[in-house]
Design a protein that fits this description.
The complex is a heterodimer. By secondary structure, chain A is of the alpha/beta class. Chain A has a single domain, classed as Rossmann fold, CATH 3.40.50. Helices cover 28% and strands 27% of the residues of chain A. In chain A, helix 3 links the parallel strand 4 and strand 5. The N and C termini of chain A lie close together (7 Å). Chain B has helices at 12-27, 54-65, 86-95, 110-116, 135-150, 174-185, 214-218, 243-250, 254-259, 280-283, 290-310; strands spanning 43-48, 69-74, 100-105, 123-129, 163-167, 189-193, 209-211, 224-227, 265-267. In chain B, helix 6 links the parallel strand 5 (163-167) and strand 6 (189-193). Classes of the chains: A alpha/beta, B alpha/beta.
């Protein structure tokens, strides 16, 4: 069976714009917004959302990257993984509104690791979660605050997010 | 890679991977919490048969920053001084649950024997064996050169096109050997300078250019000059007439320092013999990387410990950080 495209480039752009608006709407008071993407594709998504936010309200937000490799709960069960760079924007995350950004929300274990990694960098005022695709099958009590698309899937299916900056094309596919 | 024994054991890609992971480790020094969790529940043993301050402390703090439990055993004050063999000592440590053994030994090949004799199953990291190799020192030197040259864009870079001059007691230096192999693997051009008595047999087969005079080597406009320590403890013969003559002919004196380019790095693995192989003016100059080398040593050892000990298998994951 071939992969079926469930989100095209225009759908992705629209979803990210909506998320940007929702994030701004939920921002109460004068909190600084820090979008932290989880490598690899979460970093690209965080930058895109932040650019939209910056167009609407300039100067209230910045984007960075939060690598979670060293915080994974399966490190000792898998071959050694190479970490990716973490980039915390100048000003840090103390007292900021941190929005974690990832491409696919699945078991929730990546986000658990990200929350652990985050506290080693400081103490945000609040932490939110934005994902492009929520495909269900959570294994931990974690949910997203901003979702591009809910995509009910079976565990045997494979959901892939491709982004122009990384893969040369914008699309989300699902294959059996 | 299960063990780290020699810089000859890995290729360019593997070397760059270690340097890149060390970049990530170095970042954690600027965080609120400097500890990382990947070696929680693992035990690292530092087994030192030879005196060492900086290497032992460096491995100790690297392991602690990765949340491992650390046990340090020095030959003095342990059963080693009662004549216990390397095999028995190592098996005892593994029986106590050691996941990795960092070993420094006065005999060349001791680390290799621990890794391959079939006595134990732990990961072995060579922290210096006799006059053979000291791989983590070479890695931290390469890391330091790369960081000085390329700054924030270091990641992924090799050292192609850079010229490194290694000066001094090549014969007894494991630092020189490890550096020659690693720097060559990374594409650098290596020159060595030493009195003829301190050149090893077979040096003509090394991938290096040999100079007898320091001034001719410095005239090649090197990117880095690495001064080696004169190792009094390994010298049982007279290799040069006097320390004064050595300092004059092969030392990095104030006069020679003035001849170096403004970007030339002055490196030394420490501990330094000030006034012998390196003048205080050179050691304390802006071009000196001596303290950066110490700082980078912790990052490199964190990277090595992480890559060797954190995962379940010795096979590296080719997909990298795939979810």
């Amino acid at each position: 069976m071939v992969a079926r495209t469930v989100l095209h480039d225009a759908d992705i752009t629209r979803a990210l714009r909506r998320i940007a608006h929702e994030v701004l709407e939920s921002r109460r008071g004068d909190g600084r917004l820090v979008f932290l993407g989880i490598p690899t594709r979460g970093v690209t998504l965080a930058q895109r959302i932040q650019r939209v936010v910056d167009d609407i309200e300039p100067g209230v937000s910045c984007a960075g990257a939060l690598d979670i490799t060293l915080y994974r709960d399966d490190l000792a069960r898998t071959p050694t993984r190479t970490p990716a760079p973490t980039r915390i924007p100048p000003g840090g995350i103390n007292d900021a509104i941190v929005v974690l950004v990832d491409d696919v929300l699945y078991s929730g274990r990546t986000i658990r690791a990200a929350l652990d990694a985050l506290v080693d960098h400081g103490r945000p005022r609040v932490v939110r979660l934005a994902v492009l695709v929520d495909r269900g099958h959570r294994e931990l009590p974690i949910r997203a605050d901003f979702v591009g698309k809910n995509l009910p899937s079976s565990t045997s299916e494979r959901v892939s997010v491709h982004l122009a900056e990384v893969d040369g094309i914008d699309e989300v596919t699902i294959e059996p | 890679m299960k063990h780290l024994l020699s810089t000859r054991d890995f290729d360019r890609e593997a070397a760059i991977r270690i340097l890149d992971v060390a970049e990530d480790m170095a970042q954690t020094a600027h965080r609120e919490v400097r500890k990382l969790p990947p070696l929680r529940g693992k035990t690292i043993v530092n087994l030192f048969f030879e005196d060492s301050t900086r290497t032992r402390l460096s491995f100790e703090s690297a392991a602690k920053r990765l949340s491992a439990d650390v046990i340090t055993v020095s030959a003095k004050g342990s059963s080693v001084s009662k004549g216990e063999s390397l095999k028995d000592t190592a098996q005892t440590l593994v029986a106590m649950g050691a996941d990795a053994i960092v070993v420094r030994h006065h005999h060349s090949g001791a680390a290799h024997q621990l890794a391959h004799a079939g006595w134990i199953d732990a990961a072995i990291i060579n922290a210096g064996d006799g006059t053979h190799e000291h791989p983590t020192q070479a890695l931290l030197d390469a890391f330091t050169i790369r960081a000085r040259r390329f700054g924030d864009s270091s990641r992924g870079h090799d050292l192609a096109g850079l010229r490194v001059v290694i000066v001094g007691d090549i014969l007894h230096s494991r630092v020189a050997r490890s550096n020659v192999w690693l720097l060559t693997t990374l594409g650098a051009e290596v020159h060595i300078v030493a009195p003829r008595t301190l050149l090893p047999h077979g040096v003509e087969h090394w991938p290096v250019r040999v100079h007898e005079h320091l001034d001719s080597a410095l005239a090649t406009a090197p990117d880095a000059v690495m001064m080696l320590r004169i190792q009094g403890e390994r010298m049982r013969d007279a290799f040069f007439p006097s320390t004064r003559e050595y300092a004059r002919e092969w030392g990095l004196t104030t006069e020679r320092l003035a001849l170096l380019g403004p970007d030339t790095m002055v490196m030394h693995p420490g501990p330094m013999n000030r006034g012998l192989e390196i003048s205080s003016a050179a050691a304390d100059s802006e071009r000196s990387t001596v303290l950066a080398q110490v700082t980078n040593g912790v990052s490199i050892r964190m990277a090595v410990l992480y890559l060797l000990v954190a995962g379940s298998s010795s096979v590296a994951d080719p997909a990298g950080g795939e979810k």
